[in-house]
Description:
Helix content: over 70%
Strand content: under 5%
CATH architecture of the largest domain: Orthogonal Bundle
Structural class: mainly alpha
CATH topology of the largest domain: MetI-like fold
Oligomer: single chain
CATH class of the largest domain: Mainly Alpha
CATH superfamily of the largest domain: MetI-like
Amino acid sequence: MTVPRGSESAPGGRSWLAAALLPAVGVVTLAAMWWLSTIVFDINPFVLPAPPDIVRRFAEAPDFFFHHGRATLTETVVGFGIAVAIGLLTAVLLTASRTVERAVLPLLVAANAVPKIAVAPLLVVWLGFGSVPKIAMVVLIAFFPIVVSAMAGLTSTPVELAELAKSLSASRLQSFVKLRIPWALPQIFVGLKLGVTLSVVGAVVGEFAGGDQGLGYVIVASGASADTPLAFAAMTLLSAMSVLLFYLLAALERLLLPWAREITG
């Protein structure tokens, strides 16, 4: 029996429609409940601004938010790129040698346990008040989850595939490049998606410690001027930035690894 073409594409079309509409429905529902609660409980905008107050604050100075948002986005993207390069290289080195892993991994865990908010003022002292300490903070925060996820992926190659490569007389380098790395990519992307959201947090933490631009600086300045809608507007923009970067990486994963979903189910 011939299946109509429309019925073949319908499930895929519905899944894409759901993927686009469900997050929007969730955001609208949350905003409506937020707005309703401020009306019902008569909450002062100084304590909790309603969504219209935040939108109004955006509309009053779009260039202001664009300038500071661009600064935070630049620090986030640059720092994340550096963290990815260093993190993946570190993961490769650690998984290539058990001796190196045993010697270095505990040091990385100990370094990651140090509260980053305590390091931020030191980075300002060492690197100045420009964008460099903010980028360094992004690297520090995003580095560890990228390393851990990449190591998990590189060490999860099935024994059967490793034996197959050995039976084909593949060298260690060939097995690593053609087998272990492709198999590890889905797990690596898990770390990248986690790392990119943490990168936004890192940029804001760095901006809290010092500087005169960025959305973190806007939040600090709003506290000094008791402008709660300004703080919420900056936080809303930060949330949107995190969501955008996360889904850009998710889209890149779908583009580069169309087979990953079939393997993981």
